[in-house]
Amino acid sequence: MKKIRILLSALLLLGLLLLPVSATTAEFHVGTSYGNTSVYSNLNMTSVTLSGGSMPAGMSWLWQSGMTDIYLSGTPAAEGSTQLTFTVDTGTVTGIIVVVDVVVGAPLPTETPAPTAEPVPTPTATPEPTPTATPSPTPVPAPAITKNPTGETVDVGGQAIFIAKADNAKSYEWHFVSADGTKDLSKAQALTYFTGLTVSGDTSETLILRTIPYSLNGWKLVCYFKNEGGETRSEGAVIKVNKVTELPIITLQPKNAEARVGEKVTLTVRALSPDGGELLYQWYRSATGEAGTSMPIAGADKDSYTVEGSAEGSAWYSCTVQNQNGSTASEAVLSEMAKVSFAAVEPSPEPHEHAFSTAWSHDDAVHYHACECGEHSDEAAHELEWTVEKKAKRKSEGLKKGVCKVCGYEKEEVIPATGKTGSSRTRALLIVLGLLSLLIVAVAVFLILKVTGRLKIGKDEDEEEEEYPEGEWTEEDFYPENSDDDDEP
User: Fold this and answer.
1) How far apart are CA 187 and CA 450, in angstroms?
2) For residue 301, how many other CB atoms are within 10 A of its CB?
C-alpha cells in the first residue's frame, strides 16, 4: 500500500511538472497603499484559484469573471517575502500554474529637509541673518491615465466589461453619465435608476455590468481616479444596447414543382412578424440540394421568386426570413428546400390524315370504323337481335344468342331454369311425410281389426280384383303433378 501511495505521489508530481508554468515577481513596500496591481494577464482566463501560499498581511488578491488580469492590492504591514501559486484555466488550456514571488521591502524613505544650523552671534553688533526658507514637500501628482475605457455594444439582458487604468491611482469610482451630460450617477443611484441592472467592480479598474436594460442605451461609463494629489476623470465609454427582435414565423413553405423547358415556376414563402416588424427575404439556390451548398440569388429579396426553365434539369431553392424591428434584425429563419425540375419539350407529332376502314371493327360494347393510327369513327353501341338456341326448363338452363345487325358481332347468354330447387325439395319432403302418415294409420287400422276379429285373412271368391295391379309404384303414379317436365318439348 505504501508503494502505491509513493507511485501516485510521483505521478501527481510529474503531472504538476508537465503543466504550463508562468512566474513573476511583485515588489511592495511596508506602509504604502497599493491599488489593483497586475501580476498576471491573460485575455482568455475563465477561472483563477489561489492554490498555494498565503497573502502578506494587509494585502489581498482580485480576479472576477471577465477580467483579463490577476491583481494584488492593499497596504503591506510587514517586511518579508512569500510565494503565491495561482491555478488558471483558459478557454483552451487548463491547469496553468502562475507563481508570483511577493517581496515586501522596507518603508519608502520620507524626504525631509536637512535642519538649518542656527547662526553663532558675534560679539560685534551685526544685523541678524535672514533665515533660510524651509523647502515644502514635493506635491504628489494626480493620477495619470494610461487606458481609457472603450465603448461596448450588447443585446438587452447581456453583459459588458469596461476597463480603465491610471498611474498613481489610490482609488477608483465609476459613474454613469447620460448622453447629454445632464445626469451623473454613482453606482447606488444607477441601481435605482436602471431597473434590473447588476453592477460589480465599481471601485476597481474593471467595471462589470450584467442584465443590462434597454434604458441604458446611449449612456457613458466614466472612471474617476483619485490620490493625495487630486482626481483625474477618464473619457466616457458609450454603451449601445440592442433590442432583442423576435424571430419570424414561416406559415407557408415553398413547394416542389415540375415544368417544361421554356416555362416558368413561381415559388412563394409566407411569414408573420410577432412584434409587427418588417420582414426581410433572401432566396438561395443549390444545384445538389445538400446542406451548405446554397448560394444567394442577387435581387431575389421578395416573398416570391420566379424560376425560368432555360434548360433541362433540377435545382433546389430555399428562402431566409428576418424580422427587422427598428435598428435591429432577428436571426434569419430558413425555409424548407423546394425542388424545381424542368423536362425537355416533347416534339410535336407530324400531321396525319385519317383513313378509316370501310369494314366494321368491334369490341364487346361498341362497333366502329378504325384508322391505322388507332382513332375510331362512327362508333356506336351494338344493336343485338336475339334468338333462343335452347329453351330453359324447370331444372335446366337454356341458351340464347344475339347478333348485331350492323357489324355481325355475336354474343351468347344463358337462360335461367324456370323452376326453383328449394320448392321441389319441399314438395318431395311433404309427400314423404304424407306417405308415412298413411302408413302409420294403415298399420293402426290393421291392428285394431285383427284384435277385434273383424279382419279376414282369407280371400272371398266374390271379392273383386284389386283396383291396382301388383307391381312397382312410384311417387308420380300417385302425384302426377310433381313429375319432371325435362322431357317436354
Assistant:
1) 142
2) 13
HSE toward the beta carbon, residue 97, CA cutoff 13 A: 14
- Gap between the Cα atoms of 114 and 360, Å rounded: 146
DSSP string, 240-293: EEEPPPPPPEEEE----EEEETT-EEEEE-EEE-TTS-EEEEEEEEESS--TT-
Please state the rounded mean pLDDT for residues 294-309.
96
Nearest to 222 by CA among 235, 203, 205: 235
Query: What is the C-alpha to C-alpha distance for residues 460 and 470, in angstroms, rounded to an integer?
Result: 18
Which long-range contacts (C-beta less than 8 Å, at least 24 apart) are formed by 300-306?
Answer: 303/268, 303/269, 303/270, 303/271, 303/279, 304/266, 304/267, 304/268, 304/269, 305/266, 305/267, 306/264, 306/265, 306/266, 306/267
> Does position 362 have pLDDT exceeding 60, yes or no?
yes
Section 4-19 average pLDDT = 46
* Residues 257 and 265: beta-carbon distance below 8 Å: yes
Q: Where are the domains of the chain?
A: 18-105, 144-242, 249-343, 361-415
Distance CA 302, CA 279 (A): 9
Name the CATH topology of 249-343. Answer: Immunoglobulin-like (2.60.40)
Q: What is the pTM of this model?
A: 0.33
Q: What backbone phi and psi angles, to 5 degrees, belong to 162?
A: -125, 130
Query: How, if at all, do strands 237-242 and 152-155 pair?
Result: parallel
Decide: 281 and 293 in contact? Cβ < 8 Å. Answer: no
Q: Which residues partner with 370 through β-bridges?
A: 376
What nine digits make up the cell of 65? 469573471
CA pseudo-torsion sign 349, 353, 357, 363: positive
CATH code assigned to 144-242: 2.60.40.10
Under 8 Å between Cβ of 28 and 108: no
CATH code of 18-105, in short, is 2.60.40.10
Q: pLDDT by residue (tens digit) across 453-479? A: 766 655 554 444 444 455 555 555 544
Cβ-Cβ contacts under 8 Å for 188 (sequence gap 6 or more): none
Contact 332, 321 (CB under 8 A): yes
pLDDT of residue 12: 42
Could you tell me whether strands 21-29 and 96-105 are parallel, antiparallel, or unpaired per DSSP bridges?
A: parallel
How confident is the model over 248-267, as a mean pLDDT? 96
3-state secondary structure of 413: strand
In this prediction, residue 21 has a pLDDT band, given cuts at 50, 70 and 90, of: low
For residue 488, the one-letter residue type is: E
DSSP annotation string for 164-180: -EEET--EEEEEEE-TT
Q: How many CA atoms are closer than 13 Å to the CA of 162, on its beta-carbon side?
A: 33
d(CA 289, CA 211): 42
